[in-house]
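Sorry, I am new here, but would you mind making up a protein's amino acid sequence and the tokens describing how it folds?
***
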Amino acid sequence: MEGTSSGEEEAEDSSNETRLLPETAVAADDSAPYIGQRFLTHDAAYEFYGGFAKRCGFSIRRHRTEGKDGVGKGLTRRYFVCHRAGNAPAKPFSDGATPQRNRKSSRCGCRAYLRIGRDAGAGGPEWRVTGFSNRHNHELLRQDQVRFLPAYRVISDSDRDRILLFAKSGISVQQMMRIMELEKRVEPGSLPFTEKDVSNLIHSFRRSNQEEENVDLLKMCRIFKEKDPNFKYDFTRDAHNRLVNMAWSYASSIQSYKVFGDAVVFDTSHRLTALDMPLGIWIGMNNHGMPCFFGCTLLREENLQSFTWALQVFLNFMNRKAPQTILTDQNIYLKEAVEKELPTTKHALSIWLIAARLHNMENTMDFDHGWNDMVDCYGLHGNRHIVSLFASRNIWALPYLRGHFSAGLTASPGVSKSISDFIQRLLSAQRRLSHFIEQVAVVVDYKDQAGEQQTVQQNLKNINLKTAAPMESHAAAIFTPYAFSKLQDELVAAAHYASFHLEGDVFLVRHHAKTDGGCIVTWHQMGELISCSCQMFESSGILCRHILRVLTTLNYFQIPDHYLPVRWHKTLPPPSKSLICAPKYSGASERVKTLQSIVSALVSEAAKSDERMDLATHEVSVLLSRIRQQPVSVNVSGDSAHSSLAAVAKDFISSENVNISK
């Protein structure tokens, strides 16, 4: 920084000023300053001295300026000093209200300097070196270290523009550095700036452009609302009219939630890089075991107020229907918000891999004993993290979560990976922030289409019955392949279990090779109600092997309807007609049956060979995509709806020249 003549003590101009210490000596040529050296401008002198300093292992800064005979006579003398010259100024006293950075100063009173004076004579350069000292009271840096000094960490305009472009695309700082190293063909770590410099640049840019980005997000929502009246969004602003929180959901997501919203994952561990805001994502699992998207939220702060707002808005989007179970990250504010806004919902942590062996124990007593044995074995009694986990075991350990429906979300690391992969695809939508809302919709729609294609492929495959039990074929006709595979595993295992009638309606079921333990199954003939102490059905909606064994003993040939949950059915109930733009078909039942007949014939023909199956799957997926692009009318009769659909199908088939029967 520049100073005035009242600043630090002026370095003395003595005869030994030009002497160099042995360790900092340089050749007495044009590479080192010398008394009498002339420059056209003081900036040229500064640049020359800076180059010399970098070669020696230090950096410089502008120090004092002096004018002839006071102010108004022009600049006549200037000082450039070592970056460690002077002493750190004393910090003002703080009462604690304003936090201060506790950072040490690098200044140590170094007296190395260069002084230049203005030459009033004509006919040559006007600035002349009048004083120079290269005596330092500190060690100088090596050439591989000196580039880290702030004076030499420079981001050029072209690099700045490229970094900001990378930031908008969602690329991490580490990835930016590696890309630019490859582009410039330099060794890793050899760029003229550091990761911290890049982070500071991005942060300063976001602060200056944040309001513009916020306006873009709201504009996106308004545009999407015009395209789809069933799209829902909400937001809050602060006293300065700046965006604080925002949430949105699509019409298809709201429809999915009506059927599959019994178990929800609320993942808040990600950030929208372009705005540096936490990104919360609501996700569930459909009847084919695939992730389904429910909604998104952007939060300025991760505090109780923000999480409470997010949950309130989400419930409003979903017509105040609360999930049976919600899985979240471990966050004390989020925990409080769930307890406040979802009092009837079971809150669980999505920690699939915590103490995997203990996680799957049968009951809470065994879990507690196993945990204590683990702590004793590894000497973890004083570990605060372990103590905290045990204190919160009721929201992550499977024995404590049994009996609360979760659609299997708490049971398998494979489910966690499937959801994580889906979230990563959502995060990739950051590549163009100006279209973020629309891009997320594209990702969600693509996932829906991929799910439908996978569903078609599953339904076309022949189901292999493993037990020949009537209950197996009954379930196969009702459940999706995903749900049936889960039930089939339990049916196969049930054959290895023995049931013992204890008294009344109570049975003991255990593996045939064991002589103790087992599960208690209770059967009430009135109402055909049956339950098991393992509580698998209550948690997943799939009957356990113990219940299936008892049903076999009781000569059941079909599973009671109330133990075949609708959420796992192949055919789901029709969507609600409560949406604004839901088409209201009048007298269209016959036409729907006709369409179903055509689809049935298509499936029958396609199942005759793998080639037909692949062709049908691909073409039907494309047809479905084209149908979705057609406009939706508010009041559409059955005739017009059927005619429009038939026209689209006819045009598609004729244009693609599809002939499945060949």
Notes: The two ends are 83 Å apart (CA to CA).
